[in-house]
Amino acid sequence: MSRRANLRDIADAVGVSVSAVSLALRGEARVSEETAERIRAAAKRLGYVPNRAASALRTQRSDIVAVCLNDLSNPIFNEFLTHIEDELQQSGRMPYLGVSREDPERQARFLEAAISQGAGGLLICPARGTTPEDLRVVLPTTGRAPFPTVLFSRSLEDVACPQFGNDDFAAGQLMAERLLAGAHETYHWLGGGHDSSTARAREAGFRNVMERAGHVPGIHHGPTSRAFGHATAARLLRESSGPVGFACFSDLIAFGVLAAAAQAGLRAGRDLSVIGCDDMEEARFSVPPLTSIWIDKSAIGRLAARSVLDPEAEAVTRRIAPRLADRATVRSPSATPSAG
Amino acid sequence: MSRRANLRDIADAVGVSVSAVSLALRGEARVSEETAERIRAAAKRLGYVPNRAASALRTQRSDIVAVCLNDLSNPIFNEFLTHIEDELQQSGRMPYLGVSREDPERQARFLEAAISQGAGGLLICPARGTTPEDLRVVLPTTGRAPFPTVLFSRSLEDVACPQFGNDDFAAGQLMAERLLAGAHETYHWLGGGHDSSTARAREAGFRNVMERAGHVPGIHHGPTSRAFGHATAARLLRESSGPVGFACFSDLIAFGVLAAAAQAGLRAGRDLSVIGCDDMEEARFSVPPLTSIWIDKSAIGRLAARSVLDPEAEAVTRRIAPRLADRATVRSPSATPSAG
DNA sequence: TGCTGTATGTCAATCGATTGACTAAACGCC
DNA sequence: GGCGTTTAGTCAATCGATTGACATACAGCA
Fold first, then answer.
1. Which residues in chain B have Cβ-Cβ distances shorter than 8 Å to A284?
2. B332: number of CA atoms within 13 Å, CB side?
3. Number of domains composing chain A
């Protein structure tokens, strides 16, 4: 037999109807325990694997949950994905993964595929520049949505769905406050500048505190990469004399700054300060260990996954509070830095 | 209308049969260009998205490709995934992602889901301890497989499918050779020890060269994590007097070693040597930049993806040659280390 | 006029699983 | 015995798209 076994094959083998097999395998009470046992045995013997496409077609339900990320090369998204996957797994769902690469068009193609595939839900961290219009296919203003949609990490205004993310304005403030605790000649913001809620809010929080303290930080927008942090910091360090305070949109950028500092023969935490954001695992093992803003990736990922699995229960948008993870890369005239 | 539009809705709107709509949308010549245009317009107007489940059911084909990874927290798998995703995307396929977490049972559940979902192919990096028996569902010894399967990164013996990976024995040899070029008191292998082809082959290659050179390296098996590298190196550095040469199964472990060295006040590349393997992006920005073994993740990922998309064309198992990426963390009495 | 050929469609079966409606037998109970 | 109620199933329609077989109209040609 070259075909995959189906309900009919089992029914023929056992000598009952297809309905009986369907009912038995799903544990409905309409078949006797004895028959059910024979059916299960035959199913196993024939290597039966249910055809989810057929079942999805009939029931209009599916255990696929679409998950749309922006960029796999940023470990932060993997951390989110890990928690999401874990939560989905626990309910027997599987993530159907899409990567937008910050391109709303790629994102649109994935959304269509998700609908096409009959997904049961969508978890999305919207690509930069995504408009409510772009999400219309999954969040129509009139009529029913194809499935529950939940935003995570990044938020979007005027979009009617639950959103779970970090309080990025607060994160930006924490970064500024920590830097201000040490004395620096100049302050610089590295990264962001793109059309995403995280970039806007973190920078706004940072500037807010800086300006209230009477400082005008340098703003250097750029890609979320080690290379950008490295290049930008190398230049700024050459141009400056006194200690510089760097606040980075992402730890990734901060690692680049650390590399540049080391190459310039400077020690972060003494000759200059670097603070990152996201607190990825890597931060605890950088040289020196990176001071960063801890974000509750687990809570965000899990809440989002739970919300999409059970839209009734977890329908509220939430913004999770960040915390300072103080390690060794920010100058501290008073207190000594402690490893996190 | 709360339902998703289907072919019937379009047919009714245009006043043709369902068949005509199906033919027109797929560009078959059986409908006039004029009618086809009206049909496409109606499809767009109604927001029609084809139901892939129905189509998969009817045609027994699907554009889902299942991809099974082990561990998202290891950036190397993300690099593979990025290249795979890219290649699949180009053919309009989407990865259906599973994460085994090195658990053959989780892996088995995913394989069943992939079959269930009617996937069109499977790309898998087998979990540690996977046996040919575990893959029997997708690679039956008798009868037809549910879809083409391809192994990547890790290989498995006695499994009848294309396999694409790095030449890990050669990688281990390169690591040993590079370390031997500098003078060290002792040599240590960190990581691996688990039941995977990469762990076995890299260690074997390393020992092969070491033993031929008359050295007996210390072997320290353990998890592929920065924490393991950190803890193990911290202990070994305390116990040793002269320069130590560390070869790490993965860059991840090497980063931990670098952190431990820095904390001990030692400089990698001068007081001790560290060489990693995989050459992840992070290696270029560590402090100091990590000497590692470069692996062609792009070629491996793309070849594997292409093979699963077109099993006829790309059916040969291939082992890609690694290269030394010499940076700054290995002692070099003769040559000066250069940044990669 | 009649015949063939082409263009343009339509019809209906099919993929595999699900489920509301139905049936037949057995059982309980007065 | 008669009647209602369980129990253990079966039947057939259904989900949406695809496709081989068939239908109709019309042009061209002898």
1. 226
2. 14
3. 3
